[in-house]
Amino acid sequence: MNFLESIFDCLRRRWDQPVLAQVREGKVHSLTGREVLGLAHAARTFLAQAGLKQGDRCALLANNEVRWVGMDLGAMAEGVITVPLYARQSPLELAGMMKDCAPALVVCGTAELREAVAKLWPDAPPMVLFEDVFTRGSGVTDEVRPPAALADSDPVTIIYTSGTSGEPKGVVLNVGNLDHMLGCTNARLDLLMGRRREPERVFHYLPFCFAGSWILMLTCLSRNAVLTMGLDLTRIVDDLQLAAPHYFLNVPTLLERMRTGINEQVQKRGGAALTLFNNANAAWQRRYAGQAGALDFFWIGLADALVFPKVRQKIGPNLRALICGSAPLAVETQLFFMMLGLPVLQVYGLTETTAICTMDDPHHVVPGRAGPAVPGTEMRLGHNAEVLVRGPHIFPGYWNRPEATAKAMSDGWLRTGDQGEVDEGGTWRIIGRLKNLIILNSGHNIAPEPMEEMLLRRIPGAQQVMLFGNGRSFLAALVAGNAASEQVAAALEDVNAEMPHYKKIRAFLISQEPFSPDNGLLTANGKLRRNAIAARFEAQIKEVYRTGGAVSLPAIELAASHDKS
Questions:
Q1: 3-state SS, residue 84
Q2: For the chain, percent helix, then strand, then coil, each to nearest 5?
């Protein structure tokens, strides 16, 4: 039984039980296994009538909702390859990706999305809306056809990479990749949740077009779980209370914001609660550093009895863990939630590895690391500490790009492009991207990501930080967001005190306009487009080095209107 057959079987067994839900206007709307299978049946019927056959591509351009899930399941069950796309990406990029994979059909969530792409792609294939696929009553049926017979090597999806430094590439994932990965995710969640009769409650807000998010959705549909989608990012806190999950998938940005929000609420409350919270927090940090004193256990125990339960209740009364992926999480943030009694389980992987290479063991979490390799996965370090991976979850290749596929592989090992390290227990830490490595003219190699994260945490109002200095004599920083020069200078002084001479940041620029996908400086999933940023600010960066900015503080402030020049 492959992964899709297992999902259909699980939905049949949960025929009259809720399996999928979405929060809309403050209310949870649930669908049973029967209703989800009904949506998949309606999608299959529509695709067959439209003439799509096994191996054809169907682009799915929409935000998360129950019909997205029905369309995805229905297409895979027909042997049609789904191409999930990010609805907030620029229409020009979306049109480029669809031209690359040549879909026979495009299913859009809204008429606005359809029109935006159609303007840039006059020769587009048929483009329909969810309303065209799922007519009234299409979610109610007792007819459940088994999925089409698929071999392990049959592709089921093409997921486009974010394209941080070039044109996005379509990552093909096949049945065998999904069979292996869902076995791994289910086994790790079994460790977290143990044996239970009641369904697990899972909250989800990340777009399904991202590999890790999609894998979690498929995993939940294959086990005794109810996946509740939050459709409004501005209401995550309220939606969490309604969903009351046992766990949910996060990106570091949200956990950083949650940590800031909790600290702000405790500060506002003041009084004995604030004193106890601060004392416990300081004690917890000393305990982690191996410097705990006699009173530290007292403060932690008292806060755990009087303060931390109230904080946990506000986040989610049932929470057992927070799961985090897409980028390394700051150790301080992971320790903060551990102090509250909420372990953060980190995951590392690429789209090319079916989203996952490592996952934290719920019973053995090492702060600052992303856990051991999942079963069946081999990992080792190559040249320049590059992480190399092989196993049954490695993608078969990029869509129609044999040269790029060959370049990504080395003697059967996937070259991830990530720098990493592994401890004696086999637990991995990801340092940064090799292609982002800064090489000063002194010959020193510097991974920018850890230093960028340190600065970002220390600058109020900053939304992004990027270091530059490749081929130069010193490092400089570009800070994007509502940050004041004095705050940036203070943060630099703080960070520089911890660094050797060649890692000290000698100058900085401030852009009041944050980077975003809309201005072309972030990818769809929030990663820096470093080449685009360097090109946008080329003149200002040259000026920093022309003036020999070894101590060029305060910063040169760049107005938002100049950023677009």
A1: strand
A2: 40, 25, 35
CA-CA distance, 526 to 456, in Å (whole number)? 15
pLDDT score recorded for residue 545: 79
Tokens of 293: 């004193």
Identify the CA nearest to 65 among candidates 3, 2, 134, 119: 134
pLDDT of residue 163: 61
- Rounded to the nearest 10°, the torsion over CA 76, 77, 79, 84 is -10
Q: How many CA atoms lie within 13 A of 327 on its CB side?
A: 16
* Alpha helices (H) along 473-549: 485-496, 530-536, 538-546
Regions of the chain where pLDDT drops below 70: 136-141, 162-166, 525, 547-565
Could you give the CA distance from residue 242 to residue 531 in angstroms, rounded to a whole number? Answer: 42
Check residue 439 and give its pLDDT.
85
Note the pLDDT of residue 137: 60
Average pLDDT, the chain: 90
Please give the helix or strand (H or E) that residue 45 lies within, else none: helix 33-49
Q: Chain-centre distance of CA 397, in angstroms?
A: 22
Pairing of strands 505-511, 475-481: parallel
Write a three-state SS string for 406-426. Answer: HHHEECCEEEEEEEEEECCCC
* Angle separating helix axes 91-101 and 111-120, nearest 10 degrees: 70
Residue 367 is encoded by which pair of tokens? 């702060």
Site of tokens 């994260």 = 453
d(CA 471, CA 468): 9
Looking at domain 437-563, what is its CATH homologous superfamily? Answer: ANL, C-terminal domain (3.30.300.30)
What Rg do the C-alpha atoms of the chain give, in angstroms? 24
Q: Report the distance separating Cα 544 and Cα 548, nearest Å.
A: 7
Say if residues 178 and 354 touch (Cβ distance below 8 Å): yes
The answer to whether 511 and 480 are in contact (CB under 8 A) is yes
Provide φ and ψ at 249, rounded to 5°. Answer: -85, 140
Cβ distance 470 to 434 under 8 Å? no
Backbone angles phi, psi at 56, to 5 degrees: -70, 160
What are the φ and ψ backbone dihedral angles of 71, each rounded to 5 degrees? Answer: -65, -45
Q: Which CATH number fits domain 252-317+319-434: 3.30.70.1150, 3.40.50.12780, 2.40.70.10, 3.40.47.10?
A: 3.40.50.12780
| Domain residue limits, the chain | 3-237, 252-317+319-434, 437-563
CATH superfamily of 3-237: ANL, N-terminal domain (3.40.50.12780)
pLDDT at residue 140, rounded to an integer: 62
**The domains spanning 3-237 and 437-563 adopt the same CATH topology:** no
pLDDT of residue 164: 56
